[in-house]
Task: structure prediction
Amino acid sequence: QDTLRVIGIFYFFFSAANACSASNFYLLPESTSISVGETISVNVLIDTKSESINGVSAFLSYPNDKLGVAWISYSEAFSVQAEEFYGEGIIKISRGSFTGEVGNVAIATIGFRGKSEGNALVSFITESAAPRTSDSSDSLNLSESTGTTFTVGQSQVQSNPYFCFLLECLL
Result:
């Protein structure tokens, strides 16, 4: 019985340590406002919690009626491209590293374009993963990963001062 208790205590602490050290994705900025037709950059990052990881699968969802993806660019970390897809409210970014990455690591920058007015949540979805370099087990804690909220407003029509001057002269 004492042996089982010791094993149980060891298992509890080992499990808690793994949960505390699990990596998580996050987006910056955490929230922002844009206008219809405007494009803004959003950074995709991972906090590895001091563990070395050799790959990422960052899968995100967004409301396709409110936002569009204009472009995606990648950081130098995770230089091996495995998958890229965006459209229809889904983004799939899968990349690898030969050496492993540790810390708060930039993965990509996504250019989101405002399509229609309203609030738009961009969030990480299932199938996202971050395999450990040591044994390829998934280190990702998806519930701790944070997305971003957009407030998409009316487009800001900018007047041309030269045109306004000419219009005033004609009137």
Q: What stands out?
A: DSSP finds two helices and ten strands in the chain.
